[in-house]
Amino acid sequence: MRHHRRLILQPDHGVTVPATAMVMAAGLGQRMRPLTATRPKPLVEVAGKALIDHVFDRLRAAGVQRAVVNVHYLADLLEAHLRGRVTGIDIIVSDERAELMETGGGIVQARGLLGDKPFLCVNSDNLWVNGPVDAIAALAARWDDAAMDALLLMVPLARANCHPGMGDFHLDGYGRITGRRKAGRLAPFVWTGLQILSPRLIADWPQGPFSTNIFWSRAIAQGRAFGLVHQGLWFDVGTPGAIAQTEAMLADG
Prior knowledge:
Helix content is 25%, strand content 25%. The chain is of the alpha/beta class.
């Protein structure tokens, strides 16, 4: 018999945010072409700032101390940007120039740099606006190491701005992820690209590049994958057209 536990909804002032974040920045950015013909997608600007700078603003404000950033496409440009523009957080580069490892493989390659405690993992093209509480702090407050291996920040499909998809996950009343979207059907929640993962989950991986879906599926099957609904804004800035839509919404408040 599975016992459910109620999890807190709001962070308190004593919440401990993970000290380390994995920033996923190695993708090819094919949907963002032609803007990514000469620069990696994390350096595409939205509202006057590179996408990855928006992410580091959020990490810095939440108190994250160090970030492991994986690089592949136009890696020299991205590394130069990190050296010249990112301050207040220690940066460690996980080099995937030889082979793009995808999301799961990228985490595996960087595992020795991530430490032995739960860590944040965030897509570098993720753009969100905090709601009543800091989204990273809210994730940290909800994290229950005894019950969880993965905690994903999600938005309802109806509030997934610029998102062309049909949703990603189903949640129960306790926030536990009960399943993925089935082909041809809608799912009520969209993953935002921000999550906390336990190092316990990074085990028994396949050789070569692979998706984080393998780790998620394992955690879902064991009842150890949860979602937290984001109370602020979130934007899927995946194409050039989404940039103008996002900037218009941000300007409009």
